[in-house]
Amino acid sequence: MYPQLQPLIPPSFQRLRDYTDWNSVIKGYTSQYVERDYWVDACMVEGQIPAELEGTLLRNGPGLFEIGGTPIGQPFDGDGMVCSWAFSGGRCFFRSRYVRTDAFMAEQEAGRMLFRGAFSLGNPSGGRFFNPLDLRIKAIANTNVVHWGGRTLALHERDLPWELDSTLCTLGRTNLGDTLGTGSDPQNFGSHIRTFREDDGSRRLIGSTFAEGLTKGTLTFLEYGEDLQLLFRTTVELPGAGFGFFHDMLVTEHYYIALENPMRLDLSKMVTQYALGRACLAECLKFDPSKRTKIHLIPRPGRSGKTVNRVMLETEPLFCFHHVNAFELEDDSVIMDCLAMRGGVDFGANFGNLSAEFFQRAPWRTALTRLTLDPDSRRVNVSRVAEQQSMEMPSVAPDCSGRPYRFAYVTSSRFVGPKGWGPPQDIMKVTLPPVASAQLPADESPAESSGRLERWSPGRDSFAQEAIFVPSPSRGNIGNRRGNEDEGWLLAPVFRSATMTTDLVILDAADVAGGPVATIHLPHHIPIGLHGTFTEAYLGPPIDDKSPPKEHDIRRGVSHRGVPRYADMP
């Protein structure tokens, strides 16, 4: 068992209203109709952007919460808006664009809802009554975005990737060179990707697809090189896992890791409510505490050093949206860190039923949980190493993905205590408990601060979002055991409800509690988003560009910017 990580502030439990006004949370889901391009002026920067910070932060998330004046019921179903902050020479260029998916274009041109959402009802008939035979789910490209092999891809797990150019204009749907199948029914591509740095310094991108079925699920892992050429495809069938909700996955030196959530399909609700437009698809998925959570260890092809076998392990019923990291130990066991809910999940939560009291009664509060997996005995040891703090949106240093590590970065509720929780507001650095047989990715031994939680709070009615770690160029390659793991910066948007604006904060990852080294104050808001990545590629205009700011209000009409509407990129 691992010791509980201790917060740096005294444990206490207070009411949500003592931390934030619930209405300020809802303001974070206000539609943003204007797409923008502009240089960040010096007057918009508090502090100083690090001169070494070179590259582009890409972020994705729902940006539109109504169609034709009709509000959608759940923020996860909002059309995807991709934003970028491109850094070079201490300057920053900001862009934002809606992804021109076919569904987005069709609804904008029709001026009304045409599709169901996965988490809200929608109206596929476009009129007063639902069409019970129309079971299409809107593909919205709103969950993640990654730049790899010179290509920028917007991701949503119920669709293929959508490719964007360097100005974030939509090029079209892509099957990544036929690696995701061809024909009328290609595979979807998961919204979560993982990277892995090889010992020679080269990098891999690992993605996954999942095909649901009534009696089984089919899970496929795809491993790409730095040029986005497919290196390996691994497909496994998982009996009884058709609705295991494989939203995220992990990778280690020799394994792909998938956690199968204990879910079941409510067929009665599917027939009597979903088909008649009285429930969304997600509401038909139910957490089943009578089932066990299953962890699948699937061998990565082409690995050297040792041979491993496919293994399935079971543990107590947990639900996980997001995983933190995983790595292998010398005794062949595997450490898997995730954000787990013990009480299950309820997909019926939406704008209509959320309230301040919701956070006090809902049982599905996350806890940072460490699973120690023994493939030989097939035993799982569960240890909740940070149960006092509700956390979400984890990230780690990219060079530590799949390898032993010390630090994780999360958003957290401002509550401390085993029962209280609320919306994510703060950014927290977690120093994980040491593992005796793990070789840490730095020259020094574990610091005395192991087992600590360090936080930075943006203040009342402000909401920090996923913090992306960007290594300092002077740090060196952690894979070669040079430099410190936390030598770099955290980049995170912060929504300010009082002013209806969004900041981008740049934190020193070695001193999170010290606050931002720079804050970029945008003069407008970006709705509370989901996930993003950082690329070393600079995706802005030339540094001497003097073009004036540009704005486009989508309510005046949308276009494909000269790109063929149904372009199918290879």
Give your account of this protein's structure.
- A six-stranded antiparallel sheet has the order 36-4-7-8-2-37, with no helix packed on it.
- Residues 1-14, 442-449, 478-482 and 562-570 have low confidence and may be disordered.
- It has one domain.
- The chain has four helices and 38 strands.
- With 570 residues, it is mainly β.
- Strand 9 (144-148) and strand 10 form a beta hairpin.
- InterPro entries: Carotenoid_Oase.
- Residues 543-556 have a biased composition (Basic and acidic residues).
- Pfam families: RPE65 (PF03055).
- Keywords: Iron, Metal-binding.
Tally of DSSP β-strands: 38
Give helix % range.
under 10%
| Alpha-carbon Rg, integer | 23 Å
Q: Name the poorly predicted regions.
A: 1-14, 442-449, 478-482, 562-570
Number of helices: 4
Q: Classify the beta-strand content into a percent band.
A: 35-45%
Distance between the termini: 49 Å
Name the overall outline: globular
Q: What would you call the structural class?
A: mainly beta
How many structural domains can be distinguished in the coordinates? 1
Strand order of the largest sheet: 36-4-7-8-2-37
Average pLDDT over all residues:
86
The largest sheet is: 6 strands, antiparallel
Please give a quick description of this structure.
Helices cover 5% and strands 38% of the residues. By secondary structure, it is mostly beta strands. The protein has one domain.
Topology overview:
Elements: E1 6-7, H1 22-27, E2 34-39, E3 45-47, E4 55-64, E5 66-67, E6 70-71, E7 79-88, E8 91-98, H2 102-110, E9 144-148, E10 151-155, E11 162-164, E12 170-174, E13 194-197, E14 203-211, E15 216-224, E16 230-239, E17 250-251, E18 255-260, E19 263-265, H3 267-274, E20 285-287, E21 293-299, E22 311-315, E23 319-328, E24 334-341, H4 358-361, E25 366-374, E26 379-386, E27 391-395, E28 407-412, E29 426-431, E30 452-456, E31 462-464, E32 468-471, E33 488-496, E34 501-508, E35 516-521, E36 532-535, E37 550-553, E38 568-569
Parallel strand pairs: 1-30, 12-38
Antiparallel strand pairs: 2-8, 2-37, 3-35, 4-7, 4-36, 5-6, 7-8, 9-10, 10-11, 11-12, 13-14, 14-15, 15-16, 17-18, 18-21, 19-20, 21-22, 23-24, 24-25, 25-26, 27-28, 28-29, 29-30, 31-33, 32-33, 33-34, 34-35
